[in-house]
Amino acid sequence: xxxxxxxxxxxxxxxxxxxxxxxxxxxxxxxxxxxxxxxxxxxxxxxxxxxxxxxxxxxxxxxxxxxxxxxxxxxxxxxxxxxxxxxxxxxxxxxxxxxxxxxxxxxxxxxxxxxxxxxxxxxxxxxxxxxxxxxxxxxxxxxxxxxxxxxxxxxxxxxxxxxxxxxxxxxxxxxxxxxxxxxxxxxxxxxxxxxxxxxxxxxxxxxxxxxxxxxxxxxxxxxxxxxxxxxxxxxxxxxxxxxxxxxxxxxxxxxxxxxxxxxxxxxxxxxxxxxxxxxxxxxxxxxxxxxxxxxxxxx
Length: 299
Hints:
Layout: H1 25-29, H2 31-41, H3 44-53, E1 68-72, H4 76-82, H5 87-108, E2 112-119, H6 127-149, E3 155-159, H7 167-180, E4 187-194, H8 196-212, H9 223-229, E5 242-245, E6 264-267, H10 277-288
Parallel strand pairs: 1-2, 1-5, 2-4, 3-4, 5-6
């Protein structure tokens, strides 16, 4: 789907979960809402410190900013084609766009950015193209890990079936995750060889093994337990508040299928390499104008 530059991988949790009783239905409906409220109330001092640093675009409200933004970075090849350039030029431009968005998220206090870099279906593309994307991924990681650790304080994570990735890329992912795991700034999650269906299946398999081993009972299985086994469990805020998809396509393409249940969607005709600060602000303004009800009636 895209090329990128920052890459992460947090494997599914292997720790034994404490059996969890199903919460009342109203809490299930408002799970994500409650998490957001609790995070906002947990530390007044921390929020003041953030406000002292963050400089939002004019008219943007700090309290209405999304904490987790997800992006389907679509349109690299079409961007190149319209300019008479080879596809690789589009991927290179897409990498630059990603770097720019990461910096904007850091500047505006967004806590998690998840990007769909390479889907499990992308392995079906021509070998030459796949090979270039793997090399671009490797090069991007080598060039940015030190920035993550020092200048940007970014925590790097990767989700997806990384078993198919070249060994040098897997080693870089492990290195980047380990070196940045204590960073407290933006968490950048890169989905590589990722499928939303795969994520749900691997979570179910993990839970099934726990039932088989007597760690939990079938009646202990609920939405909370499933979320603990999804790969986005690597994030403090696992479910996106806002999903942005570029290049005019109106679908989620097997990305974060469980996690997008209450996510606000924003679609734009712009190809990913053209998606910069101006359009990001437009997406954030659209988000701030919406009322998120989580299944409840209008207030």
